[in-house]
Amino acid sequence: MFVTPAFAQAAGGGGAGGAFATFLPLILIFLIMYFLLIRPQQKKMKQHKQMVEALRRGDQVVTQGGLIGKVSKVKDDEELEVEIAENVRVRVVRHTIVQVLNKTEPAEKA
């Protein structure tokens, strides 16, 4: 009924292997989170940044608010002027562009 002292002494002491075994599930969870959540999000952010930097006059774009318009002027690094209707232009922050619908070709130099 009672555990003898010899059995109690043999059951203890895991050493360094026991410490690694306790951290192994945490390490695996972090790796799974990295490959399923963090890495794809970083890749998506990188693609969005490249798309926004490549915007130029004449591109047809969609903003986060759902407005569809044509870039009429690239003001600076942070702002665009988008024409949403004839003679109706709005200033838009570059990073609010969600999608480029039609890309214009660069003008050929003669």
UniProtKB/TrEMBL annotation:
GO biological process, one term: protein transport
Entry's localization field: Cell membrane
Protein name as it appears in the record: Sec translocon accessory complex subunit YajC
Transmembrane stretches, start-end: 20-38
Organism lineage: Bacteria, Pseudomonadati, Pseudomonadota, Alphaproteobacteria, Rhodobacterales
Record's function text: The SecYEG-SecDF-YajC-YidC holo-translocon (HTL) protein secretase/insertase is a supercomplex required for protein secretion, insertion of proteins into membranes, and assembly of membrane protein complexes. While the SecYEG complex is essential for assembly of a number of proteins and complexes, the SecDF-YajC-YidC subcomplex facilitates these functions.
Matches recorded under InterPro entries: Preprotein_translocase_YajC (IPR003849)
Family designation: Belongs to the YajC family.
Key word Membrane present: yes
Mode of membrane association: Single-pass membrane protein
Assembly: Part of the SecDF-YidC-YajC translocase complex. The SecDF-YidC-YajC translocase forms a supercomplex with SecYEG, called the holo-translocon (HTL).
Keywords, comma-separated and alphabetical: Cell membrane, Membrane, Protein transport, Translocation, Transmembrane, Transmembrane helix, Transport
Cellular component terms per the entry's GO annotation: plasma membrane
